[in-house]
Each structure stands twice: as structure tokens, then as C-alpha cells.
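Consider the following assembly input.
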Amino acid sequence: MSVWLTPGVGFKERVIAAVSKVPLGKVVSYGQVAVEVGVPRGARAVGMVLKHSLSQGLPWWRVISGRGRISIKGNWEHEAREQRELLRGEGVEVGEDFVVNIGKYRYWY
DNA sequence: GGTTTGACCATAA
DNA sequence: CTTATGGCCAAAC
């Protein structure tokens, strides 16, 4: 259900709007958000928007990788732990290895 | 305004 | 199962 046309225009806002739609206790993948905003292969760009929009009241922690995993590489190990705790706080089961049963918690637009 | 970067993804080995 | 590689897109430098 996307009215999103005009690729490249307002991409950030479309991403923010899409992520804001994810209900509590549910998760989506970066790729899903990319499709939802009309850029099927822009998963990476989606992640960039989220990082830049941390303090925007956006439920960024409900966005994980397509395989239900929280990427833990480089410097964001701390962020990953925080994300795990936030999800658990919403009732989403997250393993110690940062793996989520995305098939069970995925939100479909 | 060209180059680098990055909360990704699919595929191959 | 894991790691490696290439592609992808928009934002940041």
C-alpha cells in the first residue's frame, strides 16, 4: 500500500514514515522498508537514514536484517546490545546471539 | 560535484 | 553452518 512515487525525493521522510508504522512488538527488515518506500534495493540507504535520525522519536530498534539478525560489526556493538534490550522490553524474544525469530514477529505492511 | 561511506542483501565457496 | 564478494542506493564528506 504505497503511494510513494518520485524516487529520490523525500526519501528520508518516507523511511521515517514507514518505520513509524511498525507496531510495538513487531519488527521489519531494512529490505522491507526499502520496498515500502519504493526503492526495492535501497536497504543500505535505509540504514543510513536511521542512523542519522536517531533522536527523532523513531522506533529504529524494530528494524533488523532480513535474516532476523542484529548486525554486530565494527563500532556498533554497544548499539546492538541496546537494541536487543529494547526489543525484549516489547516482548520480542532475542537470543544472546542477537537472533530474532523474524518469521514470528515480522510486520507486514 | 566526484568520491567515500554504511543499522543491507543475495549469491558463491 | 561461516566467510567473501559484488551490487545497490542515498547521504555525507
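Chain A has a mean pLDDT of 88. Ask yourself how this observation constrains the way the partners meet.
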